[in-house]
Amino acid sequence: MLKEILESIGRFFGKLLDKLIVLVKLLFSRIISWFREREALVKEDADNLAFTIKQSLENGKVKFVQGIFNKKTNEIKDAEQFEAEKLDKKLEDAHRGQDLVIYN
Q1: Which domain holds residue 78?
Q2: How many domains does the chain have?
Q3: What is the 3-state secondary structure (H, E, C) of the chain?
Q4: How far apart (Å, rounded) are the C-alpha atoms in residues 32 and 16?
Q5: What's the whole-model pTM score?
Q6: pLDDT per residue over 22-74, tens digit each?
């Protein structure tokens, strides 16, 4: 599923090249707040999944994508991407040992 999400992210953000938020520290509370604002989108279709992807960059920063992915159509319904110097402990713990996290 990670491959499908990554391909869909490329298509989604290819249309929105300027949609990158740069932060010093990305907080778990910000991620959860964003998902709560889109709760209706997740609930409208059982195939819609809330996810986050963490990617360590060569410059020491972290690229982080959160979004809603439809596993049936392989489409991103909504997403946001960040570049941050670091993640807070809750986000680090959620992604410990895994790049992709699916939220229920």
Answers
A1: 2-103
A2: 1
A3: CHHHHHHHHHHHHHCCCCCEEEEEEECHHHHHHHHHHCHHHHHCCCCEEEEEEEEECCCCCEEEEEEEEECCCCEEEEEEEEEEEEECHHHHHHCCCCCEEEEC
A4: 22
A5: 0.78
A6: 667 878 998 999 999 999 999 999 999 999 999 998 999 998 999 999 999 99
